[in-house]
Amino acid sequence: MSLSPYYKEINKEVEVFEHAYSEKLPVLLKGPTGTGKSRFVEFMAHKLDKELITVSCHEETSSTDLIGRYIIKGAETIWVDGPLTRAARTGAILYLDEIAEARPDILVAIHPLTDHRREIFVDKLGEKLKSHEDFLLVASFNPGYQRGFKELKPSTRQRFIAVSFNYPDPKVEAEIIVNESGTSIDIAKKLVNIANKIRNLKELGLTETASTRLLVDAGKLIKSGLPNRLSVRVAIVEPLTDEIETVNALADLCDLMI
Ligand code: ADP
Predict the structure, then answer these.
(1) Atom 6, ligand 1: which residue's CA is nearest?
(2) pTM of the prediction?
């Protein structure tokens, strides 16, 4: 078996997922970007020894993309299963990353999979496909407490059990940064302090705040020998905003902290 992805458990989510998996209850991972949702699914798929099929949803993602389509190959037209159909047939874990971004018609396609029927209707084949007993649907969702994120309807949400992801405690977050980037614990702690400072600066009105992912990236740059201040600027400050004044204010603040 391949090496397990590194994942630091935050709050019993591993146990929750194992039970959800054994009961085949669809799982919704809620939380801002960069809080470990995707890493967690990779880790769980590895732990349960199941294939993981990931779909990164965006405005154009439609039910056809998930279910499948006919393609023309030479003189023939052949059917190609989409990721959802393939996962349901083979018993993989299907991860719909950022499900709320996709077109609403995908919800119609997944609904019969999320209840006792556990089936999909492959309309173009006229086939009702009963999913494999190992199949599990997992989705992630970034709740709309900040501007610009799409909502998920209650009728959809209530088809999933839900687990919240957020920024971990400082000690745990520093540990994750050390593990992921190879930087020192001293630097990791400073990065966490910077992040928490930025996370509390609500008045900046940032759409997204400093995530664990950004801290890991900063740690990697520092570890590779880029000067500390420059690393923090390009990995943490610049990705957060394009407003020059905010960039400068944040950069000044960070310079003092690293
Ligand atoms: P999301 O899917 O929530 O946007 P990711 O799973 O891609 O976030 O996490 C971003 C990065 O943050 C990961 O690549 C990893 O380096 C780090 N990370 C965040 N939380 C954890 C965690 N609990 N354990 C291990 N790594 C984590």
Answers:
(1) 36
(2) 0.91
